[in-house]
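testing teh design pipeline on a random one, pls ignore if ur not involved
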């Protein structure tokens, strides 16, 4: 059971890293504009970008911060 949990955790991390790479250019562009984490989240939501879990409109400042940390 522990091995299955470890494999599932690795799969989630891999998916999150993949999502971060897909959003690299937009996030880096927003950083260059000097947007706050809240403003970045608002823009991602307004543009309909999905969260790593596939949720539309689910971006928060914390989620953006975590994505940036993966880059």
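output:
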């Amino acid at each position: 059971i522990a091995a299955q949990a470890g494999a599932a955790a690795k799969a989630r991390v891999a998916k999150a890293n993949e999502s971060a790479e897909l959003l690299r250019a937009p996030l880096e562009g927003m950083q260059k504009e000097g947007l706050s984490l809240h403003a970045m989240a608002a823009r991602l939501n307004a543009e309909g970008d999905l969260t790593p879990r596939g949720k539309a409109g689910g971006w928060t400042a914390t989620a953006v911060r975590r994505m940036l940390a993966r880059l």
